[in-house]
TrEMBL record:
Protein name, as recorded: Mg/Co/Ni transporter MgtE
Organism in which the protein naturally occurs: Corynebacterium felinum
Taxonomy, superkingdom: Bacteria
Keyword field: CBS domain
Domain CBS stretches: 291-357, 360-418
Length: 430
């Protein structure tokens, strides 16, 4: 059966959602979308799925493997059980859009210009990037005589007006900004936030989900991170810290007073707080304080094919995916005996069935947790790397240090506030 690449949101309602092992997750109840200003692609963010226990959860559209005429298959059967809650800047098609009035300027339908028409459904189209974009709207014309159904017209999305991030026929500055930020890099969102008045900045930031806010916070200077974190209630602040990379969370907590930092660490999940506590135990000027405890760690029996599959993980930063570290179990840091490392380029040159234990770089020395930042800089310059292993005196891998984290600490403390090119440089950021 050919894969469906166009579908109306209304047709999805009630469809069964299954995991890859055919287990039923629940049924679709709505489609959540991000409405962008004219000229930008508006897209579906995910599905509201009602589980068998009546709990409604959110499933991102990128988790959808394919849509069949009667059911939806997911890439993985693992789902977040957190209850779905509407967020500012997002709309639910069935709950918020269908049945509302809009106006159109489709040159093919001049007779409907300047007349309010009712939204009957919205078409979604799968793009080359696997996103689902809003492509067309089914609208109802004027009702005919008694007993006659109104005519149905299909209008390209670009010719439909009156639907904004705040809702149909509504305008809300915070909602519009959040929708605009959706496709921006976290670093650009961080810069844009600090161009807003303080009250608006706090309002917009509070509407981000925990993961998005964590990504944005990591692109700010520690002072601004602490300032924004202070505006959140204590439990929300702990949730956001859990979503941050451990090294960034440790840096942020070090900016707070000891009492509040201790409270936040206690509120965090123990599995999330443990690596943060370890990082905070190192001298801030050493490699130990810079490293991440979550690099790409493999066992000696891992094949090249398996290693490359793990390196493709989109949640793994580019710098950390450039190097795999091979250790005896356990593979969670601190690991068993560290055996060596293998660069991504070497993995690409070897047969898929080759074991990584046979292609380790024998000449690459490690870094030690108590090495200085200058030592790390000389290390990267000497070996032309962007990532390096950090071990302890007993040859256990503690983590990896990435060159971007090193540069972050070598630059002035406020470099994120001044941008790529400080004021006075005639060339401006794009």
């Amino acid at each position: 059966m050919s894969e469906i690449t166009r579908v109306y949101a209304g047709r999805l309602a009630g469809m069964i959602v299954r995991g890859p092992e055919t287990d039923v997750i629940g049924r679709v109840r709505d489609v959540v979308v991000n409405i962008r200003p004219s000229g930008h692609t508006s897209r579906a963010l995910g599905l509201v799925v009602e589980m068998t226990n009546k709990r409604r959860i959110f499933l991102p559209m990128l988790r959808v493997a394919n849509i069949d005429p009667h059911e939806i298959m997911l890439v993985s059967g693992s789902v977040s059980l957190r209850a779905y809650k509407p967020r500012t800047g997002e709309l639910a098609i069935i709950a918020d859009v269908i049945g509302s009035k809009v106006h159109i300027d489709d040159p093919e339908l001049e007779k409907l210009h300047s007349k309010p028409v009712e939204v009957a459904d919205i078409e979604l189209e799968r793009t080359r990037t696997r996103d689902w974009a809003l492509s067309a709207v089914a609208v109802l014309g004027e009702r005919g005589g008694f007993g006659r159904r109104p005519d149905l017209y299909i209008v390209p999305w670009k010719h439909v007006h009156g639907i904004t991030a705040a809702g149909v026929g509504m305008s809300d500055a915070a909602a519009e900004l959040i929708a605009e930020f959706e496709d921006m890099r976290p670093a650009d969102v961080a810069s844009a936030l600090y161009e807003l008045p303080e009250t608006q900045r706090v309002s917009v930031a509070s509407e981000f989900d925990d993961e998005r806010l964590a990504d944005v916070l990591q692109e700010m200077s520690e002072d601004r991170q602490a300032e924004l974190l202070e505006t959140l209630d204590i439990e929300r602040a702990a949730d956001v810290l859990e979503e941050m990379d451990p090294d960034d969370a440790a840096d942020l907590l070090s900016e707070l007073d000891n009492e509040k930092a201790d409270v936040l660490l206690e509120l965090m999940d123990p599995e999330e707080s443990a690596p943060v506590r370890r990082l905070m135990s190192f001298n801030p000027d050493t490699v130990g304080a810079l490293m991440t405890p979550e690099p790409l760690v493999l066992t000696p029996q891992t094949t090249v094919a398996e290693a490359l599959a793990l390196a493709r993980n989109p949640d793994l930063p580019t710098s950390l995916s450039s190097m795999a570290f091979v250790c005896r179990p356990p593979t969670a840091t601190p690991t068993g005996k560290y055996l060596g490392s293998v660069h991504l380029q070497r993995l690409l040159r070897e047969p898929p069935s080759t074991l990584v234990s046979g292609i380790l770089d024998p000449d690459l020395p490690p870094l030690y947790a108590d090495d200085s930042q200058e030592t790390a800089a000389r290390y990267f310059a000497t070996y032309n790397l962007v990532c390096g292993p950090v071990i302890d005196d007993d040859n256990h891998l503690l983590g990896a240090v990435a060159v971007d984290d090193l540069i972050d600490h070598l630059l002035p403390d406020d470099w994120r506030d001044t941008g790529i090119r400080p004021d006075g440089d005639p060339r401006k950021e794009a």
